[in-house]
Amino acid sequence: MKFDMHALLGMTVEWSDDEGASWNGPSVATQIYSVQDHQTIASSNMEALLHPTTWMFCINGNAPHPLCSSSQDGGATWGPETSGAPVTCSSGGLSAHLVGSVDGNFYRGNKGCTGEGYSVFRTTNAGISWTEHPLPTSVTGTADTWNAEEAQVEVDSSGNVHAMWMGLDDMPYWSYSRDQGTTWSNATMIAPPIGLTGTGFPVVVAGDAGTVAFGYVGEDAREEEIWNAYLTYATDAFNETPLLTTVQLNAMDDPIDTLEDCGYNRCGGLGDFLDIRVDAEGRTWFALAHNIGGASGADVGIFATFHEGPSLRGENITMLAPMPAGGPQTL
After folding, report:
1. I need a labelling partner for 194 at 20 to 30 A (CA). Which of 84, 104, 204, 224 fits?
2. Where in the chain are the domains?
3. Whole-angstrom Cα distance, residue 72 to residue 253?
């Protein structure tokens, strides 16, 4: 799917079933009564009326919660934009990445309907109705930063749900659910125990059952306002004490940004959406911005991964084929 926003006023969708060699559409995927912003799109294995899968998108519109729409024919037509939360919910408009599940459900993260803590919102019927599932944020608190409305959510290949958010201490936390969001594990702080004074811009992805990876930026404790990018992963997520491995994605002399409080604000190319995905081989790719990259010092979009590490796919843990190391020269 190729999902384009046009000056906050409308969006169109194009779709390809041959790996991008050709494209169908565009179809108009918006309503005229609402601003269209902060869009996110996903599919689930719910069989649609005219297509093997159901597609859905959510936006930040003129409502006290996100608005969402679904397609029953693979993106050719879209239904009306309706509440992306229980209709009485006032969670704020911003919505973290929408994700579809193998069991047909869709999930999205947001502030809770009471305005306190974070929740994951679930629909089992392609957006006709939603239920709220609070995350264990009573202990961690929630970050007091510009993107404080968002909790990130992801689903692994078996339908287990993973959530990530920033706590009041500006550190990243993770919790998972093995029953479609009904109950959640205790919150786990996933950053290295030393070396960081704060973090921001969370994203989470899962591969096969029990594997999960997290992307974020963090301030180096050794020097104020040096912001680096980090990737943390686990291949035994459901163990009582999972092993969390963290790699810094940029060289020490090549920070992502040096602006004051960068991880807590919109700075450079670190804006509404960073993203993280797992490819077919199980390699994790973190898309973000190198805000002081290139000869001119302009923002540069980059993909980050580890050049040696485990696959997040497969019944047994295997190591990926090593890749050449990246670095400033690849910008």
Report:
1. 204
2. 1-134, 141-172+190-331
3. 50
Chain mean position to CA 266: 16
Q: Quick one: which of 171, 274, 267 has its CA closest to 215?
A: 274
pTM score of the predicted model:
0.95
pLDDT band at 279 (very low <50, low <70, confident <90, very high): very high
Q: Which helix (H) or strand (E) holds 76?
A: none
Cβ contact 135:118 at 8 Å: yes
* CB neighbour list of residue 86: distance below 8 Å, 6 or more residues apart: 113, 121, 129, 130, 131, 132
Half-sphere exposure of 22 (CA within 13 A, CB side): 3
CA count, 13 A, side-chain hemisphere, 271: 7
Residue 200 falls in which region: left (phi positive, over 0), alpha (psi -120 to 50) or beta? beta
Q: Which residue matches tokens 């041959």?
A: 18
Residue type, 27: S
Strand partners, 71: 55
Using one digit for the tens of pLDDT, what is the confidence trace for 3-50? 888 877 788 999 999 999 999 999 998 877 778 888 899 999 999 999
Q: Residue 140 — φ and ψ, nearest 5°?
A: -80, -25
Residues 117 and 157: their CA atoms lie apart, in Å, by 27
Q: What angle do CA 112, 210, 142 make, to 5 degrees?
A: 25
Ordered DSSP codes for 201-270: EEEEEE-STT-EEEEEEEEETTSTT-EEEEEEEES-TTSSS---EEEE-S-TTS-SB-STTGGGS-BTTB
Torsion of CA 126, 128, 133, 134, to 10 degrees: 110
- Kindly report, residue by residue over 102-144, the tens digit of the pLDDT: 999 999 999 999 878 999 999 999 999 999 999 999 999 999 9
